Amino acid sequence: MNTMNKIAKEYTNMSIKKDHIKLSIPNRPEYVSVIRLTVAAIANRMGFDIEKIEDFKVAIAEACTNAITHGKHLKDDNFNIEFIVEDEKLTIYVQDNGKGYSAEKLESPDLNNLREGGLGVFIIKSLMDEVDIVSELGRGTTIKMSKYLGDDFQ
Amino acid sequence: MSLSIVKNFDFEKGLWNIQLNGEVDVYTAGQLKETFISLLEEKKESIKIDASELEYIDSTGLGVLIGILKRLKQDNKNIIIINIKPSIKKLLNITGLDKIFVIEG
């Protein structure tokens, strides 16, 4: 999609209907597989191919893992997921009310000095077309990620 | 779907044969870590993972493998992964971990 088309499209999008799906999920690891099945069903219905559906499953699981592990650690609390379904694009917000973290701490993996954690956000950025992370210490984190149906946006 | 792990030691080749069936995520990664640690306590030898029935893995599982590989490398041992599905191979490629583990088949 070239820039002009994209601008034109975003302009027309103002009148195009967007479908919203909202979920509130317990802060517990056993629910992450439920989220993977949910995103696979939504992406499949939209017409994404198997490879992109797998990308969504991994990316959303990474975001949920972050929400659960960096979140409040309160197992009876919940975090929120919102799906915005458009004709050519699926956008997902994963939002926790946890501790938040400083975005500068996020780095690419250093293969000479591998740590056991820290790969998640790097993986999300690699698999999705657009990623935006808003995190504030003490105020939680929202990870926004989008992927387009076509191959023309990379 | 959860995770099941089949393990046996190959005395001829002197390495662990591990078959992973199912999904490794934040829920099952702890089970994988415990299994690998108990293997290494029994025999600190290279681990060959058959991933033909591994449907899903993410950074939580990859983190476990990285941690185990660090321990093995102290004794010049390795993690070998065989029969990887394309979606998982893609993940190893983008993280560069395909250069850290021995990938076969």
From TrEMBL, chain B:
This is Anti-sigma factor antagonist. SUPFAM superfamilies: SpoIIaa-like (SSF52091). Residues 18-105 form the STAS domain. Pfam families: STAS (PF01740). Belongs to the anti-sigma-factor antagonist family. GO terms for molecular function: anti-sigma factor antagonist activity. Coiled coil: none annotated. PROSITE patterns: STAS.
